[in-house]
Amino acid sequence: MTNIDKISLYLRIGQNHSTMKRLLLYLFVLSAAACNSAKQQIVLIDDAAFDTEIDGRKVGLYTLRGGDLVMQVTNYGARVVSLWMPDRNGDYADIEIGYDSIDRYIDNTGERFLGAAVGPYANRIAGGHFALDGKDYTLPQNNNGQTLHGGTLGIDRIVWDVASHGKNEIVFHAALPDGQDGFPGNREIEMKYALTDDNEFVVTYAATTDAPTVLNLSHHSFFNLHGEGNGTILDHELRIDASHITPIDPLLIPTGEIMAIEGTPFDFRTAHTIGERVDCDNEQLRYGAGYDHNWIIDRADDKTIVKFADLYDPASGRGIEIASDQIALQFYCGNFFDGSYCGKYGRPINYRSAVALETQRYPDSPNHPQFPSCTVRPDDLYTHTCIYKFYVK
User: Fold this and answer.
1) Which residue among 122, 124, 202, 391 is buried most deeply as judged by most CB within 10 Å?
2) 125: enclosing H helix or E strand
3) Residue 367 three-state SS
4) Structural fold of domain 47-392
């Protein structure tokens, strides 16, 4: 029986006071349900805002759906542009910080790496220099005299080929020529984004090279579980299964030491809100202007996929579990956002209004022989899996 049939039945029963009370109550329930449904509407970005060519290569916007998630992705930098998920009341919000058109990503005057794939070496390389097999390599210095996330071009400013696109997944391919941004080797990268029925966003990488090189690919989504532009992330609760970090110098380069975090503001083995200790009088926090450090995951190996971090927003009930086969996690809490530019809904991207959680190898590993190797040779297959599992409680 449809809703209209049920209302008609009530009307036929009679016009007595009790029946009318039931009718009014039923209409109220239907109205409330309709209003709640309206609040849950997902507003997708128009594909036309990303319809362009860059250096003769086609750029587009692609929509993925899986479980309760809806994501939009562009092949310019393999960026996640929007990511909608519900809260505990079923109300949706876009929790991904991003822009509403391809022009804003190309002519960006704000944060360059919003939602992007980053590499070929994610994070920093000191002085734009490293040596491999006795040969020196010089890279663009694009961050205070350091090389950050691959240099001038990286993999966030290229147009990726779309090898395939289905309802819940997209497969990208990139060919990086020998010498791009100073890195050696002709490298082939295949990367897949998939949304599962279990509300997982799964990122998988596979890469090869025809000459010895260094690889450290990662994903750079910025999340705010309140929704983009809806306040800071300082009330988000974070847990990281890590007993050590790689401490940094004032230029955010690892010193080469391994620092135990027990008794420090970096100990997230028990969940703490991000804002609880971020402004403590601590040298490492001063160097990073807050949290912008590499946590060494407590794990037995770098082969299996393990869950090791959790981000939760008590206000909305939204959360993200992070799992990977990688050995480290870069946690950055938006210390350099300043509100001078807006996201895709016209609201400023303010100080500490988003968090990045990047699975990776250690920063500046090519210059620290004591760090786990990031060298990839022609007979090697580089692989990396990162899983963001979204939940509501």
Assistant:
1) 122
2) strand 124-125
3) helix
4) Beta-galactosidase; Chain A, domain 5 (2.70.98)
**What is the distance between the alpha carbons of residues 233 and 333, in angstroms, rounded to a whole number?**
8
Q: Given pLDDT bands bounded at 50, 70 and 90, which one contains residue 169? A: very high
Spans of all domains in the chain: 3-39, 47-392
Residue 147's pLDDT band (cuts 50, 70, 90): very high
- 126, 117, 379, 132: which is closest to 248 by C-alpha? 126
Distance CA 6, CA 38 (A): 22
Residue 385 near residue 325, CB atoms below 8 Å: yes
Per-chain mean pLDDT for the chain: 91
Q: For the chain, how big is the Rg over CA atoms in Å?
A: 24
Q: Which residues are designated catalytic?
A: 220, 358
Q: Which amino acid is at 274?
A: I
Q: Convert 85-118 to b/e letters by CB count within 10 Å (16 or more is b).
A: bbbeeeebbbbbbbbbbbebbeeeebbbbbbbbb
**What is the DSSP secondary structure assignment for residue 302, as one 8-state letter?**
S
What would the DSSP string read from start to end of 172-208?
A: EEEEEPTTGGG--S-EEEEEEEEE-TTSEEEEEEEEE
